Amino acid sequence: MKTLNHFTLPWYWTRKKVDDMEEKFSNCSWDQRRLDSSESYSARAIVPQNIRTLYEQYGLDKNRIKFIMVIRDPLERAYAWYNFGVGINLPGFNVTFEEKIEEEVGRISECQNYAKSHGITDETNVWAHCSKIFLNYDGSTVFPGMMASALKYWFRFFDPAQFLILPLNEYRDNFSDVKKRIAQHLNLKDDSVFEQEHSDHGRKPYVLPKMPQKLIDHFYNEREQMAELVQKKHHIHSSVF
User: Fold this and answer.
1) Which of 43, 129, 148, 235 has the fewest Cβ atoms within 10 angstroms?
2) What is the sign, positive or negative, of the torsion defined by CA atoms of 60, 29, 71, 131?
3) Close Cβ partners of 100 (under 8 Å, ≥ 6 residues apart)
4) Nearest 10 degrees: CA dihedral of 204, 205, 206, 207?
């Protein structure tokens, strides 16, 4: 079931949407249901709380939830989203990539400094505070790439063991190994049910430009922490970042 916005809304609307879904799929047990998502889920602070609350109110065991996250180098992600914004004429994208990064990194730094000056000192709390601002601004090229901070926030609501974190380059280039890890994570005996599909088949990859130093500096700690999370959790050496 495609549920891109079920958990990104205030609780009343989340519960209403899920109740509507429950009515439509009442003949299917919860164990038969699979929900897919979008990157906006991982970057919005309201989502993990809504998911946990939903399971508690339905009397379901939240510890049985299995999360699979495919992560991408935030530098590449920022440039890809910038090109997407330019391609569909999103407001605020009639500037160069460098100008867009200059604007956004400056705004994010202002938000972080404001949060800390008002007593919000823990980094994941700072992330949660600023996510409410920047994820209401759908044209953000930078903020959704702050995955290390996002995951640490999710780990407050769910056990890290419930997460499988897959670097995009491994998913793309080593899928035979990745599908075994997916099957193991989901407690499946057979990994042949997984097939890899490329939505960009036949498209020529664009060449990444020299990244603005301000963007590199902004993501330095995030990339280091994300690589550490991936390696520590899966005991692998990853060149994701």
Assistant:
1) 235
2) negative
3) 82, 92, 93, 141
4) -120
Query: Could you tell me the mean pLDDT of each successive run of 10 residues in the chain, 241 residues long?
Result: 60 66 69 63 80 84 87 88 88 90 89 88 82 70 83 88 86 84 85 63 66 91 81 48 43
Q: Which of 81, 140, 37 is nearest to 131 (CA)?
A: 140
């890899």: which residue's tokens?
196
Residues β-bridged to residue 2: 36
Report in angstroms the alpha-carbon separations of 63 from 48, 146, 176, 222.
13, 25, 28, 27
Q: Is the dihedral of CA 49, 52, 71, 200 positive or negative?
A: negative
Tell me the one-letter amino acid at 130: C
Question: Nearest to residue 3, comparing CAs of 39, 48, 37, 41?
Answer: 37
Give yes or no for a contact between 70 and 171, defined as CB atoms under 8 angstroms apart: yes
Q: Rounded to two decimals, what is the model's pTM?
A: 0.76
φ, ψ dihedrals at 109, nearest 5°: -60, -40
Query: Are the C-beta atoms of 56 and 62 separated by less than 8 Å?
Result: yes
The DSSP secondary-structure symbol of 122 reads: S
Closest by CA to 75, choosing from 198, 223, 194, 180, is: 223
Q: Identify the H or E element spanning 127.
A: helix 123-134
8 A C-beta contact, residue 46 and residue 7: yes
